[in-house]
Structures are given as structure tokens and as C-alpha cells.
Queue: 3 jobs
Job 1
Amino acid sequence: MKKFGRQSTTRPVAQKHDCSEVLCLAINQLNNVRAVLSGLGIRYRDLQREPRGVGISVVWKHAGYLVLSVAGADDDLLSITAGLLKDVRHDRSRILEICNVLTRDNAALPVYLNDETGGWDIHVQQRLRIDLLRAETDFFRACLESLPVAAIEMRSKFQESGIKGQSYSLNGEDAQHLLLRSLA
Amino acid sequence: MSPVSCAAWGGNGDGIDAHDSVVRKAIRQLERVRNTLAGLGVQCREVGLDVFGAGVGVAQNGTDFVMLSVAGPADGVLNITAGLLKDISHERPKVLELCNSFTKRNPACPVYLHDAPDGWDIHMQQRFLVDVLISEPWFFRSCVEDLPVVARSARSKFHAAGICGRPYSWSEADARRLLVRSLV
């Protein structure tokens, strides 16, 4: 896959004076993730810090993007999230049925309805230990490359079932929206 | 019996030829899994074969257990499954809501409804590459040890929400039920 975005740079360790202690841990862990991505030659884009955690996006030219996030409360875990649809119509029972089928058929890629007050979204998210991803960089790369492809297939299943919603676009606003929700 | 000397329940599955090409690949991978478990000092019990694959059970506290299974068609992947409840009441909307809620909050341990004609069960399943688990046995150990604990907590929440069903017990019948269901 071709990638674009800003190449990573070495980042300083987060200092406690510019973040809460919990958030500092998340920032330092995300820096560890950034270092692995740089080693793999995978480019990423920085996203704005959220009160609950931090994240970056990895953009794939023909397959959308992923948000990689670390929550302050769970700083040893990396959430790798793809947005399938946002602002979906409130056909709740049908959405939950499809989420259940997709998760049952492949629990490696869990799909769920994120029904916050600002709108209902459907996500697929892998949540993995950062120390595992640092030790198994080929596996990390495989996760990042396969999730967007799986997300395209999953999105089409929702659409074929008549679930209406918008696609996540490549703009920074949608990526920031996905970061915020991935931390919920 | 494998060289690891797992305890065994029953035979190799009724009417299933262990040398069938699909199952053979699963058995080979499961052998590697058992060897890793033996190196970790984790006791397992052979549950046998199904037309789609093979599995072993690992008990915890005498009652809870996880099923480790490999499906022949996806023999690079290990399913680590905990049965939360079996033969649950057919309160489908409420069950799907709870499954979605658990999966959304913790995609590391996805929860789903498995609705076969002979009964509706609720499972929690992790799915990882066998090669990764073998390369990182510390991580494999944490999966096998942690999943029953997370499953126990989730089970109590289903009960608290009024979902009626029976817990899986560490018996041959329940282990075989979970094996078969973890594969399809």
C-alpha cells in the first residue's frame, strides 16, 4: 500500500508540567509507538491531544485511514480504530445484528456501534498491548495493513443491508472525531 | 496423546478422520500451541476434533475454562474462547445491547451472541496469530490467565441485567460444545 502523511520525527519525553500525570504516560507510550512506526517506514499524522488520551492517524492512499490512540487510563494498550460509518440512521436493531455477526465471525476485528449523543458511528477496533506490538513489529505492520482492507468489506456489508451513514473523510476533523470516540 | 501429555477427554471425534487434510493442519498447529503451554507449565486437556478443527481446554479454579481452538481453514490463527452463558433466554435486543456495550468498552475481549439452533450462547473470544503467541509466551500466558477473569466479570453483568442462562462448566460436554461453537 502507498502511504502519505508527515514522516515521524524523534519526540521528547512528555514533561509533567505540560500534561497531567496520566496523560504524560499516554504521551510517552504513543512516542514508543511512533518510534516503531518510523522503524517500519510507516508515516503518520499527529492529532490534537484530547483530555482522555492521545493519538495519531495512519493514512493509506486507497483504503482510508486508521487512528492509533492511547488512553491515559490504559496506557499499556494501543487502540487501532477504523471508522466504518458515521452519523448512521438510527436503525438500531439491524445495526446491532450486523455488528454481532461480524464480531462473531472474526473476533480479531471487533465491530461495534458507538452511540454517543453527537451521532451514531460504527467502528472496528483492535486493542493490543503496546509491548507486544513493539516486540512483534511484523505483526504490528500486518494489523495496520489489514484493518483498512477489512474495514472496506465491512462497510459494504452495512451499506448492502440498507444502513445509511456517511463515510469518514480524510480531513483532520473526522480523524480528530475518531480519536475522541476511540478513547471513550 | 500428544508428546506434551495433555489429559484427554474421549476420542478423536465421532466419525471424523484425523488425517483429513483440513483437520490435519489444525492438529499440527495445535501441537505447537500445546508445546508452548507445556513450556509455560500450563495444564491443558484435549477436547478432541471437530470437522472444522481441533481444540484443547485450559481450566482455571476448577470451574472456569478457556477453549483454545484452531480451525482447519484458518490454521494460522488461535481462538481463545470463554463461554459466558449457554442456553440463554431469547431476549435478543437486550443481549445484543449488552454484547455491543462490552465490545465497545473493551475490544480486546469481544463479546458476542452465538445463536445456533440448539441454543443461544454468549461467548468472549480473542483471536491471535499462532506464530505471535508462540514467539511471545509471556503474552500467551496473560491471555489464557486473564480471559476467564474478564469473562467471569462479564457473566455477572449479564446476570445482573436479567439475562437468564446457565454457566459453562468444566465438563466434557460443555468443553465440546464450546469447541464446536468456537470454530463456526
Job 2
Amino acid sequence: MSTIRQQLASPLQLVVLASAGIILLPLGYVTAQALSADPVVWGRLWATRIPELLFNTISLAASVAVITLVLGVSTAWLITRVEFPGRRLWEGAMVLPLAMPTYVLAYVYSFLLGFGGPVEHLWQLVAGPQARIFSPHSYLGATLVMALDTFPFVYLLSRSALLSMNVSFEEVARASGVSRLSTLWRVTLPLMRPSIAAGVALVILYVVSDFGAVSLLRYQTLTYAVFQQMTGRSDNTAASILSILLVGLALIFLITERWFRQRSRFYQTTGHYRAPQRHQYGWLGTVAVTGYLGLIVGAAFALPASLLVQWSLSPEAQATLDSRFFGFVWNSGILAASAATGGVLIGLPLAYLASRRPTMLNLGCLQAAYAGYVLPGPVAALAVLVLFTKLAPVFYGSVLILIVAYVIHFLPAGLQSLEPALQHISPNLEEVARTLGLGMRDTWRRVTLPLVRNGFVVAWVLMFLQTMKELPATLLLRPVGFDTLAIRVWMEASEEYYQLAAPSALLIVLLSLPALALLVSKDWRAA
Amino acid sequence: MSFVCSLPTLRRTILSGLLLLFAAGLVAPFFVPSALAADQLTIYSGRGERLIKPVLDAFTANTGIQIELLSSGTTELVNRLKAEGDRTSADLLITNDAGSLELARTAGLLRPLNMREVERAIPAQFRASDNAWVGLSGRFWILVYNRTMVKPDQVRSLLDLADPKWKDKIAIPNSGSEYLQAGVSVIRATYGDEKTRQFLQGLKTNADNQVYQKSSQIVDAVAKGQVALGIVNHYYVYRHLAAQPGAPIAVVMPDQQEGGMGAIMNVAGVGVIKSTKHLDSAKLLVEFLVAQAGQKLFADLDKEYPLHQDVKADPALVERKSFRAALVPLSKLAELREPTLTLIEQVGLR
């Protein structure tokens, strides 16, 4: 038995090594290109762009972190600790913003808050005709959009921390005469700290690698600058220098997130665990809570979504719903399906070997596959581009190069659900089935497959959706005739043709909703 | 919040649907048509899709030749052509800037053309010496101003925009745009590096975060009064006025004063890719674009200055004969580009 397994393992081992290589090589090439760059280029970038870009990126990340912290923790606390009519409805509604790609929210807000836009008109009714509001194309605008789009990460992690927390700690505090507010501050929040930190680190990782919102809001971050360097210059040296800075920055937050996530597992949930008592609110409290939650969900989802519907129904938008539009839908569909299938096929042996034969090598290969987390879209595109022009220029400009970029970029999302699925199957289960008289095929069909199936489905759907929403890598690498829905949204929105961008944007949001349900029940970290 | 479906049949349907999609994803990449039909042209275009697609559609309607259009940034597409080499599926390159075409020509990407139609229609200063690229339509880098905020005699020259009195009142394109690079190249060639640097420094300070990706957004911002002045290619202003005749905007043709350098001109143009397998169709398209009918489309739809002498520009535009253009030849834009980019980067323009 063991010899058979070893024989099976060695070709598989090669596959795994090759996959890890394919994933790491592009990053290696970019790093090499950046490090071998003329010191003059480094010097010039340090003297001109880098300080501004680093400052912009970090200050955006910091302000978004603070706002998501407040929004995420407060909503999670209200949902888990307060009873009010419609609570279960709000519990689900709080994750809806995750269905809005950042570029969609950004373009809706550049209309709403734009010069002479609806919000400004309202404000002028109050403050006089000359009053101005802040421009959405600024630090504040980018902060608002990114915070509204990402606070559900903190909400979800805080919520599960609050649900799994042992309430006896809080009860002891209350019984010893500590006030309710003080208990919250001195007991509950400290217990939630690892989860909150993990959520915030995730938010920061997301903000740092976002391209869609910052490009539409013209806010200069590292990720946006990499894209601009790639599209505006004839060589990629400066782009790769900015890329490795960005990768370094992302790596810091990835490690932070993982470290806190590990710590967040050490809750005492066994023993005398009891579900927390929900505090019943009266009508005044209900109105206040509903108003607060409604404001957040309204700003982050309901209002943008209803604008998209309204724009999609306009005659200008209806006129774009021709065969060309369905071509874009088709392109989005097959690209996403190919990337998802590719991701599952590459991720499977990596996760399988790491769980069955957890040697240093196999675990290392699996960790390498998580590199996508620190490769923002434009960097992934640059990396794949550099690799292919050096090693296999034949594929340049083909669909393959784009799919490779997608797989590298989104494999972590898939692995998040492939890994636990494979850990479920232990060889014993199969062996038991065999000793009880099942054949090889029946064992596979009735034991193994049902065990891993859900994990596969979730992994595939997640990668499908991520790919469908993906913007920068698609912009940079798409072959002729491969415009996708995301590309159309961005192209129309960047010229402020709001109506024309709406049908594609709405379709992306609608397609994301069912997957969001899946995500929330299984593995939402991947969004 | 659980997604587990209780109906086994529905679940099975969903699963088999997903399985089908999984398989589709597996085979899909191999079904992408790599060799296109004979009567089909692939065009890499660095012009806004809105500006070029109607013209190409007219060509398809005339000839039945289908066109695959990849719209993207000009520099990005030239980079891409370099990387793809002979394997590219592109048959033609259309750009918004002569400098980029000249760079593509010197990189050996374009095919010289020997076509009498071209030589007859387009004056020699608007095409490469070997006709590897051919200018199609002229555009001028002009000042657009809001009539309620600025009087026309307040600005004469592009260089006036660096004046501190315009702080936070101007909008400019981002430094990745090829016509900004071309414009700065012309200013450098005329006034030298030091004066250009001061100009860019002032421009950067005055524009602050009013740096736009698209010229149409700049015109919009001026029309709404968000800024008083902007630098754009002229046709964006006239396209805006054609759609909204009441907009309070007007054009200053800059640098016409005594001793001024003249307005900065650039052309949008086309080149046939060296490795094209559809040379006859590609030539047919070039012929269509330089002929009177094609030139009229650029004039009427896009509000550009046609390069064909017998085709009139839109009457709303400033009469071409009434102003001077800067004297830097288009083909020089290519060699000026690299030092210009260095200067732009040193100043730290976005």
C-alpha cells in the first residue's frame, strides 16, 4: 500500500513543485528586474514619487482601518447583543456591500458627491447656494468608498468572536459591580481583540491592493502608480520597483493578519459555554439601531444598487444591450470559468500533498501558492507579463497568459476552501470502505467525493466570482476581443458615462449575490 | 445564514450545472479563434473607442470587412506590439499621437507603404518619410476656459497656467497621456529644459489634484465651473459644445502672440503592422481613412482638423488658416520623448 502511494506521490510531487514554481517565478522575475534596475532610476523614484505614494497608501489604509473598526465592531455588537424587530434581516444585510466591487461603489459616489451632484444640491439647500462639499476625488472620497466596501470583513470577524465568546467573563464583571459600558471596554473588547485585529489587517490588505476605486477616484496609491507606470512608460523598470515596495507592504499586513488569526482561535468555548443574552430594546432603541444600520447598508449597498437599477433602465443604457453586450457577458463567463477550473486543478495537488504528506517541501509549496495575496492585480499582471516575455513569448497576447495571472492572483481564495475539504478525508475512511466490501470506484463515489465535493464547489465559485470582478490584470493582459463586463464598467465610468456603465455593473452585483450567500456560510475571508 | 439547500433534486441540478461549467472552463481556452477569418482586421487602437469605432463601423458597412478592435493606452499597445513581435494578431495600429507612431516605426513594427492615394491625400509633414505611419486627423492642444470665470484676454499662452494666480483653478491631463508628453516635448524644444521645468512645477502646484485621466472630464469640470481653465485637445471642447450648446465654455488658441511658439499640434494616425497577413484589407482601410469620405467622418464626428486639403473642418472650429502652429516637426516627437519623460518624472507630475 505504501509503495503504491509513494509511486503515486512522485509524479504528483513534480506537479506540485512545478505549480509552486509557476506561482513564484513571476514574483522572482519582477524582484530581479527591480533589484537590477539602474540605481539612478531608484534614486529618481525616491526623490519624486515614492514618498508621496507611500504616504498616500498608508494614510488611506490607516483611515479606512479606523472607520471599518468602528463600523464593523459596533454593528457586530448590535446584531449579537441586542434584540430588536428585524434583527435577523439586518444580520444578513450587513454583508451585502461585499457584492459591490470597489470600482462600482467608486463610480456611484463620484456621481453622488461630484461637483454639482445630488448631495451637493441637498447641502446647498441647507448651507446656501455657494456651499461646497468635499470632492469624492480625494483622500476623503477614497476613504469613504473603501470603508463602506470593506467594513463587512471586520463585522463578520467581530460577529463570530462575539458569538463564540464565553459570556461568563462578562457576567462576572457585571456581578462584581462593573458598569455595562466599563464591562464592554474592559472585558468584551479585549477578548475580541485578536479577531478585530485580523479583520482590520484584512481590510488594510484589501485597501493596499485595490485598483478599481483609487483609479476612478484619481487617488494616487502604489497599486495605481504601478498601473500608470506600466501603461505610460516604454519600460517596466519603474513599475517593478514600485511593485516590490507594494509586495513588501502587503506582506507585512498578511503576516499581521495570520498572526492575529492564529491567536483568535484560542477562545475558551467549551465547558460552561452559554449563548449570550440579547438585550431587549424598546421602541426608541429600535428606531435608533434600525436608523444606524439602515444608514450604513443604505450608503454602502441600497442607494448605489438602486441608482444602478435606475441608470440601467434609462434609454441610453437600454440601447447598449445589444449582441456586443452579450459578447462581454460571454467573455466574462468563459474567462472566469477557465480561471476557476485552472485554479481548482492547480490547487488540488498542492492542498492534497500538503495534507497527506506534510513534509517541509509540500507545506512550503502550499505557502508559495498563497503568494497571490500579496500580488495586487497590476503586479500580478506585470509579473506574468515579464515571465512570459522572457520564457515563453509565444503565449504573449493569448488567453493563457491572462488565465495564469488570474490563477496566481486568486488561488489563495480557492485554497481557503480546498484545504479544509481535503483535510476531512483520512485514508482510514477509504480503507474502512474497502474492507466493508466496496470497490475502488464505489469508494471514490460514495466516500471520498461526497466528503470533498462542497469544498470544491465553494472554491470554484469563489474563484469564478473573483475573476469576473477582476479589473487591472484584465485591462493589461486581455487579448483582442476579450473585453469583459468589468472592463466595460471601468471604461465607461472613467469617462463619467454613468448610465452606460450601469448594466454591466448591475449584472456583476447580481451575479455576486448568490456567491455571497455561499461565502458567508463557508469562507468569507476570500472576498 | 446558511446556504445548504434542502431539496436534493435542486441541489443535484446546481451541482451538475457547476460540473458542466467546470468542464466548459477546461476546454474554453482552446476554442478561442486564433486565426481570424480572411475578411477580418484586428486593430490595436490607442484612441478613445467612442472616437474611432463609428469611423471603423462605416468602413465595415462599406466593404463588409469585419474589425476586431482592442482599445487601450497608446504606449501600452506599442509595448505590447514589441513584446508580441511577429506573432501579433494585430494588422494595424491607430494612435492618438505621432510620436508613438514614430517610436513604433523606429522599433521596426510598422510596414512602409507605397500608396499613391496616401501621398495625394495627406501632406508630407503629416506622415513618416517612408509612409510607415500616416497622419489621419489634426488636433491642437488648447486652453478651454469657463466664460463666467475667465476673460479671454487673461490667458495668452500655455505657459501662463503656471502663474500662481491660477492656483487651484486649472485642470490638466495626467502625465501618462501621450499628448501631454508631446506637448511638453514641443515646449522643451522651443524654450529649453529649465523654462519647461519651471512651467511644469507651476502646473503641478496649480492643478494640485485636478489631474484627469480623460480630456472629456477636464472639459466637464470647466463647464461645471469646478475649475476655470483646462488644457485639452481642441475637439473635446467642440464635442462637448455639440452635445450641450449652452455650456459656458470657450477656446483660447494659445501662444499666438508676437514671438509666441504657436499652438501645439499633433496628429492621430495609423500604421500597418509589419507582420500582417491581411495586407490588402489593411491597405483598403488606410485608403478609406485618408480618402475624402473617411476624412469627413473625422471632421464631422470627432471635430478634428482633417488633413486632406479638400475636406473642410467643422465650421464651429477656429479657422485653421487664422492661427500658427508650433514649428517642431511631428517626427521629432519620438526622439524628444525620453528626456521629456525624465523631466516630467523629476518634477513629479502625476
Job 3
Amino acid sequence: MKRLIGFAVLVGLLVSTPGEAGRPEPKVVATIGGEDVYQLLPVGAIPAIDDPKFVSGKKADRQMRAEEPVLGVVIGGEARAYSLWQLDAHEIVNDEIDGTAIAATW
Amino acid sequence: MVYARTLGSTTYTFQVSGRLWRNSLIMVDRETGTFWSQVTGRAIDGKHRGAQLEKVEAIETTWEQWRQAHPDTKLLKKSEEVLGSHYQSYFDDPEKMGLFRAQWLAERMPGKTLVYGASVGPHAVAVTDGALDDSLVLASLGETPVVMSRARDGGVRAFVARVDGNEIGIQLDAETGEVTDASGSTWDLSSGLCISGPRSGSRLESVAVTPVYWFAWSGFYPNTQVIDRADR
């Protein structure tokens, strides 16, 4: 099986593509528990999804590759999957499943 | 990681704060501007500082495996074609990571090793992929016995190995591949359900599992136990 990586990818921004044009230097904006908090991007620059839409069956299959990694949740018998490739660009989905408000995060 | 986003009578909407702490994402809620750690679900700064979001059981697997296990699943609709990860070079490069808090954590294993983290109160364990190959892993998190294994759908799940306050002595029968306990009951560790024997119908309490890089997990839980193939 392809190895999956479960980790918020913001660190990727901190350490990837150094010197990319227009990307500001990380700034220490606070210290919590003795450890620095870095501001890498403005709030909301990576847009969370607040109004998620869903597909299923063949329509879903057409959007996905077999080996594509997903985050999967089941609540009250209802299963939902979130493509991690898609979540790279959003990191948070504010969703509701069977009456339970959840945040799916990546 | 998936969290319930209702606390008390308020439902929060989370945004990406653009901030990073302990090598990981900080979320901020629109309602109060409180900052929350994505790894722990705890409010680290702002109005609700100290509050804790409830974790919701979730797994990471492939679309193929998830679809097989859940044929009726809904999928978050894509508005455009996404053919891969933006961050593939970050995932692939072992040198690209955040900072370790201490040298001994850096020496324990490579920082980009994927571990499955679980915690009960202040106690934590990090289990490597190799330790889960064809096996189940038992760990004591403080007083709590926890069993972790790879489920049918490819995800990793963990449960408290206790029924009515008693540790059940769970183990994998290497010959039959069945998971049994000291009472002779058989368990399904994909669901946590007892499927036959004296405890038939009992269900184990689930423990959230966080797939995460070692450098990040060890930043939150520097005293974490580590279970690798060699340790089990």
C-alpha cells in the first residue's frame, strides 16, 4: 500500500520552496508554553470549506484515483470521505454529518 | 484529524490561521478568534484557552479501500481536477521538516517516520507502521490498556482493551488470525465489537488515532512511548 502521510501540511510551506518569489518570511508573533508561534500566511489565505458539497457512486469514482489518499469518517451510519489531495488546498472542512457538526482537518 | 466543533451550545467554524506552533497547524474559530491546535484539539490562546474539542474517530486510507468498506460513502465534491499533492516534494524529502525539541527525540528515529499516535490524558504512544504489520500492538497509557491494529479498510484503529473495568487479555492467534481474549471471546478490531463467545455483543471504547510525522508528535508528547517492530 502506498504510504500515507497524516500531517497538516502547513509545515510544508515553512520548509518548501525557499526563496519563492512573494512568499514572506515566517514571523514570530507569540510564544506559547515556551515555544514560538510563527505567522506564515494571513488568516484564511488557505480557505477552509464552509459549505461542502458531496457526490457518491460512479460520480465519486470519476473524481478519484484508486490510490488517492482519503480521510474517512462514519457518523450515525453515514460514511464520508475527503480527498487529502483536495484538502491540501483547504486544510479544514466545516461539515455536518447526521446532525453532528465536525471539522475535518488535514 | 476530525473534531466535533460544538462546545456547550455553540458551534464553531474553523479557519486556517496561517500560524504554526510546535511544527503544526493552528486553527482559529470565526466566532471568538480563539486559537486551537490541530494536533490536540486544545485551545492554546484566546477566549476559550484550555478548552478541548472532542476527537471524532477518523482514518486515513486509499479511496479504493474506503470505497470497498463503505460502498454508500459520500465524497467531498471537487470543483476542479486535483491530480496529486501540492506538497509531494515535502512528503518525499526526509530533510524537510520542523524542528525537534530535544536531540534525544531526533535520535530515536528519523523525523519523517510516519507514526500512529494515541493518547489518554498525558500518556501517549507512537506506533510505527512496521509494528502493525500482521500484528496488533498493546500499550499501557497510564492505567489504560490500549490495543491498536490495522483495520479492514486500511486505516489504523485503537480501543481500550477493557470491559466493565476489567482488562480482557486480548491477543492475536497467529495460526487462525483471530483476535481473542482471556474469556475465549473473539473480537473484531475493525469495529471494536465482540463477535462470539461469552462477551458477544460487547463493544470496546475507541481511542482516536493520529497518523503523524514523528517530529511533530514528539513535539507534543516528548515523553511518548514508542513501539516499533523490534519492541513488540
